[in-house]
Write a structure and sequence with these properties.
- This protein is mainly β.
- It has one domain: Beta Barrel (OB fold (Dihydrolipoamide Acetyltransferase, E2P)).
- It starts with a strand and ends in a 12-residue tail after the last strand.
């Protein structure tokens, strides 16, 4: 799983039928310090996140595992909301 920040919502009037009823967001991947890593992605939201939320996400085939009842055409899915992130250093980490 990777960290990301939800940056916006995607509105699509025409999309694959398998995406009907699912929310699409733009998300900026980030590192544990909150710095941007790579470019923004379009992701499927599985948890009801909102713009500005820090989330964790999965990519590739794992992006479809959050939808066990059907296969979706997505390479990235938000699967959790980050409430707090403690990053330690040294032997305590």
């Amino acid at each position: 799983m990777k960290l990301g920040r939800v940056t916006g919502k995607v509105w699509a009037t025409i999309k694959d039928k398998k995406l009907n009823g699912l929310t699409l967001y733009t998300m900026q991947p980030i590192d544990e310090a909150g710095k941007n890593v790579g470019g923004e992605l379009v992701v499927v939201d599985t948890i009801g996140s909102r713009e500005g939320d820090t989330v964790f996400w999965v990519g590739g085939a794992e992006a479809t595992f959050a939808f066990p009842d059907h296969q979706i055409p997505s390479d990235a899915s938000i699967v959790g909301l980050v409430d707090r992130l403690d990053v330690g250093s040294g032997a305590d980490a």
